[in-house]
Write a structure and sequence with these properties.
The complex is a heterodimer. Helix content of chain A is about 0%, strand content about 55%. By secondary structure, chain A is mostly beta strands. The N and C termini of chain A lie far apart (about 40 Å). The mean pLDDT of chain A is about 90. By secondary structure, chain B is mainly beta. Classes of the chains: A mainly beta, B mainly beta.
């Protein structure tokens, strides 16, 4: 049974810092992994989708990497801004089951 | 311009009542989903519909009955509400049902059962 863990559960950084959010999964046989952003009172916004054949995806200040063999993904946020404050969720698709989500990392970027 | 919309945004009701949540997407996607996010923030899929047909039912109690009148709408009806049904319910859509595409989520409906 696929399980997704995100560490840390919460993170607070000063504006301008680069930071890394971690996601690990127990079954490395995945089709893809997605990173989402969840703002309070709003739905999830998909940030990056990495297919199993890819090692990383980039969008603006965001870079997500995937190491299937070790069951890990990282989301790197460069030059963080207060507007980046949100909960970041990763979710994996393993083929047999629907998307399995982690509990998320709550990020606060302090101005 | 809202891609995936849900109504209502908040729903407070008594145990035993029946309630519905509506979802609409204007993205032209074939597949729609209902997810439940509980108080521990775990987000889990409940149902998935592709072109109005149920394709995933993740052992959800039969008090929950999704209905898809057309592929742009997926409504969730809940009978005999229980305290444990309190959660945020998210609707989502994607072009295809294989989870290989990005999913687009609605803003969520916070259900509180008293």
């Amino acid at each position: 049974k696929q399980e997704v863990t995100q560490i840390p559960a919460a993170l607070s950084v000063p504006e301008g810092e680069n930071l890394v959010l971690n996601c690990s999964f127990t079954d490395s046989a995945i089709y893809n992994l997605q990173w989402f952003r969840q703002d309070p009172g709003k739905g999830l916004t998909s940030l990056l989708l990495i297919q199993s054949s890819q090692r990383e995806q980039t969008s603006g200040r965001l870079n997500a990497s995937l190491d299937k063999s070790s069951g890990r993904s990282t989301l790197y946020i460069a030059a963080s801004q207060p507007g980046d404050s949100a909960t970041y969720l990763c979710a994996v698709f393993s083929g047999n089951t629907p998307l399995v989500f982690g509990k998320g990392t709550r990020l606060s970027v302090i101005a | 311009d809202t891609a995936v919309s849900q109504t209502p945004k908040y729903l407070v009701t008594q145990m035993g009542n029946d309630k519905s949540i509506k979802c609409e997407q204007n993205l032209g996607h074939d597949t729609m989903y209902w997810y439940k996010q509980d108080s521990k923030k775990f987000l889990k899929i409940m149902f998935s519909y592709n072109n109005k047909e149920l394709i995933i039912n993740e052992t959800v109690p039969n008090r929950f009955s999704p209905k898809s009148p057309d592929k742009a709408h997926l409504n969730l009806h809940i009978n005999s509400l229980e305290l444990g049904d309190s959660a945020v319910y998210f609707c989502a859509s994607s072009p295809r049902p294989e989870f290989t595409d990005t999913q687009y989520f609605g803003p969520g409906t916070r259900l509180t059962v008293l």
